Amino acid sequence: MVVAGIILSSCSEKKFDEIDTDPKNPVNVPVKSLIPSVTAGVPYYVNGTELAFYCSVFSEQTAGTYLDMRSADRRQNINSQLSENAWQSLYTTVMMDLNTIILKGSTGGDEEGNWKYVGIAQVLMAYTMGTTTDIWGRVPFSEAFQGEKNRKPKYDNQKDIYEKLQSMLDEAIVNLDKDSRQTPGTEDMIYSGDTEKWKKAAYAVKARLYNHLSKIDPAGSAQNALNCIAKSFSSSDDDLIFKKWSGSLDATHQNTWYRESAERSQMSLSLTMDSLMLKNNDPRLYSFFTGTNAALNGQSTEDPSDRLYSVISSNVLYPDASLPMITYEEIKFIEAECNLRIGQSNAANMKYQHAVYSALKRYGIDSTEVSPIANLTFYNNVLKKEPEDITVELIVKQKYIALFPFQSVEAYTDWRRTGFPKLKNPLGNPPRRFPYPQNEISSNGANVPAVVTTSGVWWDDGSED
């Protein structure tokens, strides 16, 4: 029921003002009551709605074969309407509540001393704001979340946002260790109040953010990420992952990718993913998809009934399927890439191997199934590697498969960082950032950066605009 409560329609500014003054609606919600909505809402809005669907198509983890996803794949309607819902949900639904928890529980707040709640909210804020700036570039942060006090917040430079997020995560780690007025329990829908796991998650988010700076500071960002990884996940038991879908017949209690597939089914197997996995005889291909009938991105025939192309299978999409945010194998792939960037090829090879085996294990594939006897092609192409064979391309391609399908936002970021995998859409590359939404252009136009979607964000091309 908590999950159902966070899946709300976006509201206009006028509506929010009405809510602020409606005596039937509480205006002073305790942090304990806000934690369920944010620990369910962050994975939902970042990893489980159209933001993730568009990134899946742009990165060619899937091909758009119906409705909006087909249009996006054909480079149509990539305008200020495309990101309206995602922006509204992230700012007015998720991050507004996270900011409230942080303010209320911190020094001077209504619930001063609720430090563990503050720490959780800071980890989730860094995760969500990090995604937001990765998608759009310059966005409101320092002046955001003030409601009617400031309806025209400035847009901060991405470089400054990244620095603030790293500081916020450092604060979160400290706050999670403090004595707290209350200790979260089952209202925390991710870790059930386990603050040691939240600290590991904070270090995992820090490592991911540092790794995004591979173009800006290759060696320095790699070493910073490695320092954080040493204190992050030690196994898949530590995954930052949402598992609380009930799987009931009520659609609001089901995995959102599953609902998308059941109700609209806009995405199918892409030729990019199919080719990458077929080449290596990857055993996950037949677990991920219903077949091997792939669509070429940008050239697909409309397929509303899933008769022409293979789609994501029920092994992956089912009513109570978990929704990963950051996984142990992602951290191992980051570790491999960072070791390689600082010239530690032996360590890079070891962590790469570990990452691949961990990614296979998530889908029930053990080492005997990818041994030289059982699967010589996969073993030779993916696993039988010497330190001198390890490249960024090899690491990122295997990470790309491991991120499928729920972590498509990160796959889109990796493609922009590294150029891997090579995309096949004959219409050309996808946008390197999302367009700003029309409601921002209309209400805060003087502050909205004048950019085109073919320009990269700061960590991509070194320019803030």
Q: Give the oligomeric state.
A: single chain
- Give the % helix: 40-55%
State the shape: globular
CATH topology value:
Serine Threonine Protein Phosphatase 5, Tetratricopeptide repeat
**Domain module count:** 1
Structural class: mainly alpha
Mean pLDDT: 94
- Percent of residues in beta strands: under 5%
- Topology order in helix (H) and strand (E) letters: HHHHEHHHHHHEHEHHEHHHHHHH
Give the class-level CATH name.
Answer: Mainly Alpha
Tally of DSSP β-strands = 4
Cα Rg: 21 Å
Mind telling me which CATH architecture this is? Alpha Horseshoe
Number of helices: 20
Rounded to the nearest angstrom, the distance between the terminal CA atoms is 42 Å
Poorly predicted segments? 1-25
Task: Provide tags for this entry.
465 residues; single chain; Serine Threonine Protein Phosphatase 5, Tetratricopeptide repeat; 20 helices; two-stranded antiparallel ribbon; globular
